[in-house]
UniProtKB/TrEMBL annotation:
<dbReference type="InterPro" id="IPR001851">
    <property type="entry name" value="ABC_transp_permease"/>
</dbReference>
<feature type="transmembrane region" description="Helical">
    <location>
        <begin position="87"/>
        <end position="107"/>
    </location>
</feature>
<keyword id="KW-1003">Cell membrane</keyword>
<protein>
    <submittedName>
        <fullName>Sugar ABC transporter permease</fullName>
    </submittedName>
</protein>
<dbReference type="Pfam" id="PF02653">
    <property type="entry name" value="BPD_transp_2"/>
</dbReference>
<feature type="transmembrane region" description="Helical">
    <location>
        <begin position="179"/>
        <end position="201"/>
    </location>
</feature>
<dbReference type="GO" id="GO:0005886">
    <property type="term" value="C:plasma membrane"/>
</dbReference>
<feature type="transmembrane region" description="Helical">
    <location>
        <begin position="51"/>
        <end position="75"/>
    </location>
</feature>
<keyword id="KW-0812">Transmembrane</keyword>
<dbReference type="GO" id="GO:0022857">
    <property type="term" value="F:transmembrane transporter activity"/>
</dbReference>
<feature type="transmembrane region" description="Helical">
    <location>
        <begin position="213"/>
        <end position="239"/>
    </location>
</feature>
<keyword id="KW-0472">Membrane</keyword>
<keyword id="KW-1133">Transmembrane helix</keyword>
<feature type="transmembrane region" description="Helical">
    <location>
        <begin position="127"/>
        <end position="149"/>
    </location>
</feature>
Length: 282
């Protein structure tokens, strides 16, 4: 059960979750709790397939996904930052809207329902067994760490998230930093959606994110919005998903193995809650 192919499967499963978790961590650092990752990821999946289908280029599909997801994230930015709405409520609404919107678009754009795939649809070519987006996700972790702890922009971003009034007093635009954090997070979700729709498989299916955005939210909480913490948490969930597929091969029911990542998520939430409670009591 444990061999080199499991590592490859884990990396493939890890990448969409990692991109979405980095997006959530970026927003968290700016003081915005982003739970719209699931919907933004799903929009990225659809846009990646649509872009690849109409241009014939997988990388233009990736670019389409990045732009579409970044634009979709404006729902959260405008609602929570400009109008001061509850980010949780707006995030839930954005997730529900994405499900309905992509279900509508698959019928109007591709003239089908359920799932769309075509032999002519261009997917991402593997390099050393993985798409380039897998390697890009690792670079994104390193870039996030450098940006957050070694760059003045990251220092101001953390100030905006932790002490917004103090940051405003020092002349830092809280609105601008939160807008850019949410939009950049949307772009990261677009990369995650592109990996899911053009890297892991080459198709779009309704609700194909299957809770990965919610798992990414848990990864942000478990990793305390730090680059390494988020990476390790996402790695845990990616391994659980890969093991779930592997368990199907030894005869366990698919329904049971599909539940593996969510079981790990529940355990992680329990441990995180317990850790926070002990920290507060201490």
């Amino acid at each position: 059960m444990f061999d080199l192919s499991l590592i490859s499967s884990t990396l493939t499963a890890l990448t969409p979750i990692l991109f979405a978790a980095l997006a959530g961590a970026l927003c968290q650092r700016a003081g915005v709790f982003n739970i719209s990752l699931e919907g933004t990821l799903l929009v990225g999946c659809f846009a990646a397939v649509a872009g690849s289908w109409y241009t014939g280029s997988a990388w233009l599909g990736v670019l389409t996904a990045v732009l579409a997801s970044a634009a979709y994230s404006l729902i959260l930015a405008v609602g929570s930052v400009t109008f001061g709405g509850d980010a949780i409520v707006i995030g839930v609404a954005a997730n529900l809207l994405a499900v309905g919107l992509t279900s509508f678009l698959i019928r109007t754009v591709f003239g089908t329902e359920g799932a769309f795939s075509d032999p002519a649809l261009a997917g991402l070519d593997p390099v050393l067994g993985q798409s380039l987006l897998v390697y890009l996700s690792w670079l994104a972790v390193a870039a996030f760490a450098v940006l957050l702890y070694r760059h003045p922009w990251g220092l101001r971003l953390r100030g905006v998230g932790e002490r917004p009034l103090a940051a405003r007093t020092l002349g830092v635009s809280v609105t601008k930093y939160r807008y850019w954090a949410i939009i950049a997070g949307g772009a990261l979700c677009g990369l995650g959606g592109a990996q899911l729709a053009l890297g892991s498989v080459t198709l779009f299916a309704e609700n194909m994110t299957a809770g990965r955005g919610w798992i990414a939210v848990v990864a942000v909480m478990l990793g305390r919005a730090t680059p390494i913490g988020v990476l390790l948490a996402a790695l845990l969930f990616g391994l659980a998903e890969a093991l779930g597929f592997r368990l199907q091969g030894i005869g366990l029911p698919q329904q049971a193995t599909d539940a593996a990542p969510y079981l790990v998520t529940l355990v992680a939430l329990f441990l995180s809650s317990r850790r926070n409670r002990v920290s507060v009591q201490g």
